[in-house]
Each structure stands twice: as structure tokens, then as C-alpha cells.
Fold:
Amino acid sequence: LPRASAQELASLSWGFAAASIPAPQLFHQLALQVLQRLDSDKSAAGDQVGGFRDQELSMLAWSYATCGERLPGLTAGLADAAGSCTLGHQAMANMVWALGSMRAQQQAM
Structure:
């Protein structure tokens, strides 16, 4: 996973979540990779932060919200990233739904 592009990480998470394939270990490793990249590159350039475009950030958030994986720091990390870049309309809608769902899941624990 360290060599995967931001698009590959987002697509991988989306594919497993869309297919409803339980893969907690994979989602844990993906989250570590995503958070590491977001933490190492906090600079935002337009629709991109940490090497992730707005669509990729929203795909990641949707994936984690859909599969119900609860990983420490991921919700906050994705929310911070989304707040640091310019989101298109679709990415904004997806992020709002996903972050709201993730937050509700955390509160239900």
C-alpha cells in the first residue's frame, strides 16, 4: 500500500465497500496510509490535499461510512482534509453524508 497512488487507495476502499466485502484488516491498513499521507502533507492546492483530490477524499469517506469500519482519527483526518481544500458539489455532498454517518456510528458505540 505505501506505493499505491491516492486514486488506487480510494478505488480499493470503494470497491470493497461497494461490494460489501468485509475486510477490516485492509481498511485498517488503508486508514493508516491515508492518515500518514494527510499528516505528512498538510498543504492544500485547490481540490487536492495530501495528494488526494476531492473525489478521492469523498470516496474514502463514503467507503468507511458504508462498511462501518471505526478507526481512530480517520473521521477527524478526513474532515480536516475536506476543510482544507476546495470540494466540488458532488464531493461536498458525499463528504457531508459520509462524515455524518461516521460520526453517528461513533456515537452509537
